[in-house]
Amino acid sequence: MIYAVIDTNVFVAALLSRHSNSATVLVVDTLLNHGICPLYNQEIINEYQDVLHRDKFHFPSESIDAIISTVQKYGISTERVASFEHFPDPKDVVFYEVALSKDDAYLVTGNKKHFPQTPIVVTPAEMLKILQSL
What we know:
This protein has 134 residues and is of the alpha/beta class.
């Protein structure tokens, strides 16, 4: 099983995409079909709720609910592991620190430059390659 924290921007990009074969859509589909075990904590759920419900996106509530309920029902709620890395945006720290809570877990993000350059931080396209290699 692949364990991963999914950055909010991956969900936003997937929900905005018009291409069913985009990397973000395929990662979210894999998550919804239980091919990725999501890691999360309440801070991450709160961010998902806040960002995905923003008026500027107009995302269907059913889509948001499906994502968040799947994360909570099939994922693992875990604690943060303190990181002493520098982050350009302090709001990103929680995603990285939750990913550190489980050995061999990943952080899937569309903004790798916002995180430490470590092997656990991957783009959606990189996550698809990891999934295909299993």
